[in-house]
Amino acid sequence: MNKMIPALVWNPRLQLFFRLVLGITFIYASIHKIIYPGKFAQIIYGYGLFPSELINITAIFLPFLELFSGLFLVIGIYKDSAALIINIMLTVFIAAISINLIRGHEFDCGCFSAEITGYEVSSVHLLLRDIIFLFMGVHLFITESKSNDD
Amino acid sequence: MEKRNKMIKELSVIVGLSVMAGFSINYFSPNGISYIGSWDTASGVITAKAKNDAVVREREIMDVKTVKQIFDADKTVFIDARPYKEYEESHIKGAVSFPPAQFDERIEAFLLNYSPSISIITYCSGRECRDSHELAQMLIDSGFSETRVFIDGYPLWEKEGYPVE
Predict the structure, then answer these.
(1) What mean pLDDT value characterizes chain B?
(2) B40 touches chain A (CB under 8 A)
(3) Which of B7, B14, B33 shows the shortest C-beta gap to A38?
């Protein structure tokens, strides 16, 4: 039993599965934001957390960071660095959603579409989903870094 | 140390590619935005200032009393750009519901009922709502050149105690 758990954690198939899930999710999430940066900027504004001077720059740059990090994870190059960037982004998303949940501020997450859809998806649901993604990302970062050392 | 340098190099490549692609594509995209948007509601309806932006400051009426005077003159059609459900709950007295999402389905009927020479004021839910501007742009493109936007929309109209139904 004691040997089974590390074997499962270090399983290359699990690494591949997490890489594909995170990579494809981030690529998909970036597409609408890239096509409609103005709508994505309005979603960032809706979080009520970012200085107005940085909203547009973030809306221009962040979707491409999602795209390239996801792409590198799927292709399988710079895997630990791509996982690190994805983990940083997920940590920021989790913090932003949590702060708005605590202060009762309604917002649109804009996670997969830049269309403003209203407060339709529960923030708790979003938070749980991002925590699961972060778990995958941390697992990937640790195992990929370890693989590079070996 | 070598591992750390390798990671810094990889991170720089991913971030550098994202910066270059982001700013290049934004520059050439028809949906590209300015580097700094207009996010202060004191200036009017918020906007990222996109190249094809529907938010046009010259169309905005900022003073609710001016809108009330126009309403009292009874020569202007008020159009509610909010979702129909919100319009149904309450709206500016005499206003017509016309959510921009249903523009294609409803413009023909609208053209049969109203002459393009009429004066129109669109409104939605305030300065964080762009639908009134989106609708105004669509109406102007359809020939209704005398279209303006009441940027404080229904919430301030109701708060002022002006006629609703």
Answers:
(1) 94
(2) yes
(3) B33
pLDDT, tens digit (0-9, with 9 covering 90-100), for B52-74: 889 999 999 999 999 999 999 99
Taking the C-alpha atoms of residue B163 and residue B165, their distance in angstroms, rounded to an integer, is 7
Whether B37 has its CB under 8 Å from any CB of chain A: the answer is yes
pLDDT digits (tens, 9 = 90+) for B105-144: 999 999 999 999 999 999 999 999 999 999 999 999 999 9
Interface A:B, Cβ pairs < 8 A = 91
Residue A15 lies in a domain: no
Does the distance separating the beta carbons of B19 and A61 come in below 8 Å? yes
Among A36, A43, A56, A67, the strongest candidate for a mutation testing the B interface, having the largest count of B CBs within 10 A, is A56
- Where exactly are the structural domains of chain B? 1-30, 41-159
Beta strands per DSSP E along B3-156: 60-61, 76-80, 96-97, 119-123, 147-150
Class of domain B41-159 as given by CATH: alpha beta
Tell whether B12 lies on the interface with A, counting CB pairs under 8 A. no
Q: Do A65 and B48 touch (CB under 8 A)?
A: no
Please report whether residue A3 resides in a domain.
no
Domain count, chain A: 1
Query: Residue written as tokens 């938010």?
Result: B55
Q: Say yes or no: B47 contacts chain A, CB-CB below 8 A.
A: yes
3-state secondary structure of B75: coil
- Does A92 fall in a domain? yes
Tens of pLDDT, residues A14-47: 989 999 999 999 999 999 999 999 999 999 998 8
Query: What's the complex ipTM?
Result: 0.84
Q: Which of B13, B37, B130 sits opposite A56 (nearest CB)?
A: B37
Helix (H, G, I), strand (E, B) or coil at B127: coil
DSSP-assigned letter for residue B95: P
B76 φ, ψ (degrees, to nearest 5) = -125, 140
Residue numbers of the domain that contains A42: 20-145
